[in-house]
Write a structure and sequence with these properties.
six-stranded parallel β-sheet, Diaminopimelate Epimerase, Chain A, domain 1, 19% strand, homodimer, 2 domains, 39% helix, inorganic pyrophosphatase (n-terminal core), alpha/beta, elongated
């Protein structure tokens, strides 16, 4: 697999194509939408006819992105010959199979996920990039299109969201250099950050209050555990997915190595586990049939809340003890 | 005032000095401490004798900064001839007056505050810099000292904290370019962000729970107001200053233009006001004898909580109404 060669062919194919259809993944985020819109605008600047597709309804907090309203939930019909997939590790990420793609189509695959399946006829996968936005910016520069303010806003949003405001360890010197180039073109930081971070549903804030009210500290302050009951979701008016990220509040407490959020979902208890410095929560989740990464994992319990809490607390306390003794 | 000329003289003076005393400001933060430590290390690399001073006890969350333990709360005695003040807009920021400085001393003033009083014999104030860390990095480069990993960690922390993780509007293309140079030298992002952001006192999380439990929404969702009573502080075990920043949780709710946190401090109610996009909260605070900036201001009430809440709610509802009608 030689990504560098493919990138050259992708540039050439895009230069010659009269029409390009762009695709981005389910559960869309700032990176796939921002990158797709920036590339589309660049292609239009050099005379291409462009369509934008996403399988899911778009989140309202991204509505400020220039071009947002042009994204369709219907597949382009007829399909143009050149199809460019943005930020998708495989075709399943756009709810598609290869059989849905016309036989003479050329599939271009632009991504930054290390898990990418190289499903394209031509692939450009940079697993060192914090966001596909970095790859998109490089692509636009190599197309010879000058970055304008709208592209900069889209690409800044892409890079900033996927790098966690430049906090995640995927952030590199290159991430910052490319971001600097975008800021040169005019980016309204205040407005972007306001749109991305200050648009939390009220129900989510109420759910946070519920979670914090039930906060428990164990293992001499090294384990913080929060719970959300079905009633908590009902009373706050929050959907399940709004609990996403709340576990980080427990993780942010001084001295805490492991944070857990247990939530009641129908007859099950779903657990989100996070660790700060050393504990492998993937191993702990695996003991309950779950998994994930060393610092972030999840598992599901078929027992009532009290029992699930007891199980996970005991397992983590033991792991913390063993870790300390070794 | 010609800052550029002064920067050259400051470089020359530092090159020639055998001893340099470094000073940083009260209520120390990542920017002043990180910048001071990086400059000190650079000066030592070119053979200078260096001392580090801060008038206040240092916050524990900065203990990971290389060189942290060398900072003293006692003024250097005897004073060396060259005194370099870092991140201080005036001598009051180090609890000093000019009379405490020996007559033949040379005062160097390195800062980025637009309010800087140019109190030094030589001044290098770059009000475009997001952090004095940017100025410190430029100074070290111009001294001809190569940035090492320890300096990079200190300077990255300085820039990252004062630019609000590159979110505040003081962040420029230059901020990102300098940060890229630091990442080239080796910076452990995970560890730094963990030290800075995941060290919240448990009492602060409990105080957040209190604030969220009392959250009220007014003005068709555009005003979010929270209160903290003396009992809330007592029961959570939190000091007054731990309420800092909690108002941002109210500000982050979708549709909210103004967020207010009222807290009981002795016989008074102190209000923190924040706006997201357009309302001038400085004007509102001024009506109650307070002030600040357009998007962040504060004021104090001599009345009980219920009355203060009524006053500020009415004033903001009116301002929101007028703003909408215009």
């Amino acid at each position: 697999m030689n990504n560098e060669n493919n990138s050259e062919e992708i540039i050439e194919i895009l230069r010659k194509a009269p029409k390009v259809a762009l695709f981005s993944h389910v559960s869309p985020d700032g990176d796939c939408i921002g990158s797709m819109l920036a590339i589309g605008r660049a292609l239009e600047k050099i005379g291409k006819e462009v369509s934008f597709y996403n399988p899911d309804p778009l989140p309202g907090y991204l509505a400020f992105l220039p071009g947002y309203s042009r994204i369709r939930q219907e597949l382009p019909c007829p399909q143009p010959k050149i199809l460019l997939f943005v930020d998708c590790s495989d075709l399943g990420r756009v709810n598609m199979t290869r059989s849905e793609i016309y036989g003479d189509s050329i599939v271009l695959n632009l991504d930054h996920h290390i898990s990418n399946l190289f499903f394209g006829d031509f692939n450009w996968v940079d697993a060192q990039a914090s966001a596909v936005g970095e790859v998109a910016l490089t692509l636009i520069k190599r197309l010879g299109v000058e970055i304008d303010g709208d592209m900069a806003t889209n690409l800044y949003t892409a890079i900033m969201t996927d790098s966690g405001c430049f906090e995640y360890s995927n952030t590199t010197a290159q991430t910052h250099r490319l971001t600097a180039d975008l800021l040169d073109k005019g980016v309204d930081l205040l407005s972007i950050h306001n749109n991305i971070f200050n648009q939390k549903p009220l129900a989510q804030i109420k759910l946070l209050a519920c979670a914090l009210n039930g906060l428990e500290i164990h293992a001499d302050g090294r384990l913080a555990i929060m719970t959300l009951s079905a009633e908590d979701f009902q009373e706050s008016g929050a959907e399940q997915e709004l609990s996403e990220g709340l576990v980080n509040h427990a993780r942010s407490i001084a001295g805490v190595e492991v944070a857990v959020l247990l939530k009641e979902v129908g007859p099950e208890i779903k657990g989100a586990l996070r660790s700060n410095l050393w504990l492998n929560v993937n191993e702990i989740a695996a003991r309950f049939g779950g998994g994930g990464h060393q610092r972030a994992a999840g598992c599901t319990f078929g027992t009532p809340m009290a029992e699930a809490k007891q199980c996970i607390t005991t397992a983590i306390e033991e792991a913390l003890r063993i870790g300390r003794d070794h």
